[in-house]
Design a protein that fits this description.
371 residues; mainly alpha; Dna Ligase, domain 1; two-stranded antiparallel sheet; two-stranded antiparallel ribbon; 54% helix; transmembrane; cell wall biogenesis/degradation; EC 4.2.2.29; lytic endotransglycosylase activity; MLTG-like
Length: 371
Amino acid sequence: MNDRRKRRRRSSNGLVDVLNAFLTLLVIGLVVVGGGFIFVASQYYGDGPLPEERVFRVESGNALSTTASRLEEQGFITNSLIFSQFGSRVEDNTTIRAGDFTIPANASMADILHELTTGTPIRYAVTIPEGWTSWQVVQRVNADERLTGSIDTLPPEGSILPGSYDYIPGDTRQTVIDRMQAAMTAALAEVWEGREADLPLASPAELLILASIVERETGVAEERPQVAAVFVNRLRTGMRLQSDPTIIYGITLGQSTLDRGLRRSEIQERTDYNTYQIDGLPPTPIANPGIEALNAVAHPDSHDYLYFVAKGASPRDGHVFAETYAEHQQNVARYREIEREAAEQAATEAEAARQELEAEEAGEAEGEAQQ
């Protein structure tokens, strides 16, 4: 009997010992896990190693793990595993955005992940002015060293919509050109759909050609509908367009500038682009018109003007319009007088500057001689 009691007592004591040991291990495990969690959390939320503000680039298609490794390699964080594994468990959004991001000094892993998932990348853009030729556009895109690849074929004239196009560093140049062309395709289709019904234009291509001429004829935005109406009136009456920019395009093909006035021989020479010599429109656009020029041709002003000439020496002065050739000749005569006065003023100013420089040099020479 006593032996059985002793055995039960020993068994009870053994069970208590096992329970105590298990509880001890459990407490130790909780302490270790808790301590590990606290350590990992302190690493994730604490100040980072970055001594000063820097830019970090996320390449297109980079996943969280790849980004974490690159951040550690470049000294933005101390542990890529904590960044990717812990971050993916405590953050709602871990979808990394491509682009360049500004990371402030001492940014924590939490701050960096938040910036890369919800922040706004640094904006990079290519801006194309209205009226540039496709050759000029390609020169600008090629000059941007943040873009990659080459443009193998010159885009057709008029196929690019001027404007500002955002990109991510590393994007290909051809991709940017493709976006510009897609924008023009969409814009031209919309403008053509909403055009006035009685225009003497048979297709979107013809609207695009005329818009390119309007774009090159005036840099004054509010004048575009007036200039467009002059050309529309001429097309309706069978008059030739007689646009100087078309002759210039026929000479340069948009791949250089003509830094001089047109010669009589060039005006008299018959080419596909000389609208003094051909009827109707030239075969292609002569530049890439903006949306305002497209809309001006689709919705020209209602007037009877058939002629226009520059109002002053500066393109910003705009033009003066006329219904008859006689009135136009009077306007041309006034413009020639303005040109003459401007040339005389420029010559007077140049002569004054020359005399001032000569006087300064003479004074310096005499001073040195006296020394």
